[in-house]
Amino acid sequence: MQRTRLIVLALVVAFALAACADNEPPRLELTGSVVDEVTVVPVPLIEQPTIDLEAGWRESTATPAPDTQSPGPTAGSAARCWTRMAEVSVRPGDTVRAGQEIARVDESLLKLGVQVAKAEAAAARANITLLEDSLTLVIEGRSEIGTKTTELDETISDLESQRAEIANQLALARTALEAATTPTETVTLTTQIAALEPALEQIESGLEQARTGRSTLASATAELDTTQSRITGVRTAANAVVQARDVAVSLAQQRLESAVIVAPADGTVIDARGTGEVVACGAPLITLRVSSATRVETYVTADQARALAKGIQATVYVDALPGRGQPAHVVHVADELEFVPTTFATKLIHLTRGMRVVVELDGTRWIPPGTPADVQISVK
Length: 380
Description:
This protein is α+β, with helices and mostly antiparallel strands. It is built from four helices and 15 strands. Among the domains are: 24-37 and 292-378, Efflux pump adaptor protein, beta barrel domain (Elongation Factor Tu (Ef-tu), domain 3, Beta Barrel); 112-256, Helix Hairpins, CATH 1.10.287. The chain has helices spanning 2-23, 108-178, 183-257, 302-305; strands spanning 27-35, 38-42, 82-88, 95-96, 101-105, 260-262, 267-272, 278-280, 284-290, 295-300, 313-317, 326-333, 338-339, 353-361, 372-378. Strands 1-10-14-12-11-15 form a six-stranded antiparallel β-barrel. Strand 11 (313-317) and strand 12 form a beta hairpin. The two termini are 46 Å apart.
């Protein structure tokens, strides 16, 4: 009888445990390892200003021999870029903060480039001043010629009126002379005609000179108009040059500012170049282990990945903390298959390609990179 009770009790406990198991959400049990988030700070690609060592020398007429050793146009600019590290202020093991200065490129040529750019910008502005002065002189000359032209037009108009009046008087005198009946009238009219004819000739000569001067002023006006138009066009181009020089100054200053290299994030220096080294642009300068929450990397099959999403809760177990599961959550689920590293320990022996999954521990607990870990993920 007692044995029967024990059997019944065992069955009840078994059914209760099964019911509890059915109520628990399904989960994936995976293996993974703590990953080390490392970032590499490269040597900046800074275009160094070109210094013309032959400035002021007459250009040689000799044809240079072809350079068969120089790289072709397909060679990358970074491969031909070298720079000297004026200062590397960190060493392996140092802790840095985001934005902290960690290195500085040699700034001598960069500072010279800023000075040259500013000098060229100042020269371009000086050209604008000269053009403005020239344009002012042309406009003033154009105004003076306009005034003289107006005065000359008035003079020509007066001379034409006087010529018409004298010509009319001369015609009347000649008509009267033909009709004169007394010697006195004849002498008087003859004397009058003798005075009017030279006066008319002088007026004709004055008109010719005035019209010639008017034509000269018109030509000068046309030339000044052409000159003004040309100076205006040159001034427009010079303004564009000034803008280009200002851009060159900004670029030179940006290059100088980029000579100071700062840490991209909080972390610990793993490797660093030394002060005074000459390194290629784009080469690793400082390797930094980023200070962030501990992350565990694992791999799942494509079917398992469909049940995962960012934010899903997980629990991480490591040997360093036996029996103490660390709360975590999924932060990355790959969207395509990739080859699983041969060093990766997985419960699926034949898993050669999988979907990469990254789980991040909640809180600030740090676990050494490379530590094996068991991961339990609650699936949907």
